[in-house]
Amino acid sequence: MVYLSRFTFPDPDQEFDFFLSQKRTCYDSFYPFQVLSRRAFSEVDFAPVTIFYGGNGSGKTTALNIIAEKIRAARDSAFNKSNFLPDYLALCEAEFQFPPGGCRIVTSDDVFDYMLSLRNLNEGIDVRREELFQEFLSTKYARFRLESIEDYEKLKRNNNAKRLTQSKFVRGELMDNVREHSNGESAFRYFTEKIGEDGLYLLDEPENSLSPARQVELVQFLTDSVRFFGCQFVIATHAPFILAFKGAKIYDLDANPVDVKRWTQLPSVRAYYDFFQAHAREFEG
């Protein structure tokens, strides 16, 4: 499915006209101006899966954030906006074929915050569990008489403790522990929770915190989301496992001017290929 069909960034002439109109000279940077235009990147025609490829500083994350802000995509983590972002966005244009059911950008910060929240939640539950262990021991072997209505709850807990084992008592008094995941498992879980049906999703370096096997699993999940659930994805990445996404349209932001390429033409992918070719006998031996 293609919801967002075309997006245009300001070209060098538009940026020049903007600078001529400015009387503010106290700024060292006009970010995001001149980030994408320096590589003549002014237009994107989208496919169901579109990828922005490039190394650090290439502008792939900048492009993703600009698109997200222009189309007002939902996001969890705050975006560090510059003073000139509204001026830049005013010069951008987004064209839709159909309105998506929802738009969301997922960044590395979102995934990291999610993993941290799970970890903190588990730590809090672990503390409460230790408290309940002590309460079980003190309650099960305690002797007291029912002297007031306030003691009724204590009596129920005392009888409950005598009837149950320590582990069953604790499980009954405590919410189930959030399942402890590895970072990769938690990161993958975040994507599956945030990506629904009939949506437009912008993913910024989703490979972060994912092992190669998990990256392959994520690509399969995204493939199924496109094929069966009407989703469209725009992805910023330099990970070979994600660049190999079947049918993806890849913009090489390291090229000048920016150009559409096959994943096997990209320099970083070629570097992996050459490396494994050089060590082929070690794998085959």
Describe the structure.
The protein is α/β, with parallel strands linked by helices and 285 residues long. Helix 8 links the parallel strand 6 and strand 7. It is globular. The protein has 2 domains: 192 residues, Rossmann fold, CATH 3.40.50; 63 residues, no CATH class. It is built from 11 helices and 9 strands. Helix 4 packs across helix 5, helix 4 crosses helix 6 and helix 4 packs across helix 7. Strands 5-6-7-3-8-9 form a 6-stranded mixed sheet, sandwiched between helices. A 3-stranded antiparallel sheet has the order 2-1-4, with no helix packed on it.
Distance N to C terminus: 45 Å
Uncertain spans:
123-129, 161-167, 173-180
Strand content: 5-15%
Work out the number of β strands: 9
Basic shape: globular
Main-sheet strand order equals 5-6-7-3-8-9
What structural class do helix, strand and pairing data support? alpha/beta
For the CA atoms, what is the radius of gyration? 27 Å
Written as H for each helix and E for each strand, in order along the chain, the element string is EHEEHHEEHHHHEHEHEEHH
Number of helices: 11
Q: What is the class of the largest domain in the CATH system?
A: Alpha Beta
What is the total number of structural domains?
2
